[in-house]
Amino acid sequence: MKRNILGILAFTAMAGAASLSAQSPAQAPVPAQVSAASPTADEVVNKYLDAIGGKDAIGKVKTMSVEGTMQVMGSEAPTTTILVDGVGMKQESEFNGTKIISCYTDKGGWTVNPMAGVNDPTPMPDEQYNSGKAGIYVGGSLYNYAAKGSTIELASKDDKAYTINLTTKEKVKYTFVIDAKTNLVNTMISEGHMQGQPVTVTISYSDYRKTETGFMVPYGISLDLGQFQLSIAVKKVELNKTIDPAIFVMPKAGA
Hints:
The structure is a single chain. 14% of the residues lie in helices and 44% in strands. It is mainly β. It has a single domain, classed as Clam (outer membrane lipoprotein receptor (LolB), chain A), CATH 2.50.20. It has a 13-stranded antiparallel sheet. The longest helix has 13 residues. The chain is globular. The N terminus is likely disordered.
């Protein structure tokens, strides 16, 4: 049972914490009603994009290679993420010789997760793919959201944080809590399912650091499903390395 849960949690974190079939946003605390004097949702999002370096800095990042360490249920595992902007994202983690892979592309996704009984490369269900495919873009869900068919709204604000709700064109919904002082995303919340049971997925980001292009990357990531938690400590980020897109192609079973 522990190995199965461990595999599910690791797979969830590696898929951008959105692979628990996100359906609708968790109800984030509403600290205050939005007033006529409040900034618009677009103004809040633009401040966030400026805080992570601005659109020019984001646009300069064509590929990313991220190495880190995952800690979950007393176990530790190396994890890597390789991203080609708009083309694909592949994430791998290894627990005691068992490799877990999740891969998203602009056309679909596939997984390998022996700890959850998936030993061969297997296509992702549509709902899982739709909930995580924003990860193939360097700027994430909020960057150029309208061009991707998403909509946003400012749900609440106070002197500490803004709450933005985003709905994708596939009706996948997320809640972003953005710090009012730093304008950085502190938390992303969604609703999902694990082993047939509804769960609230809360991902917290911390220790943002500036890369050579000026693009900011969080080096601390934690995921909370209530009963289970995990964290990822980023160790190394490399930008604009040459990456062969062939790594995103799903291998044949047994290959």
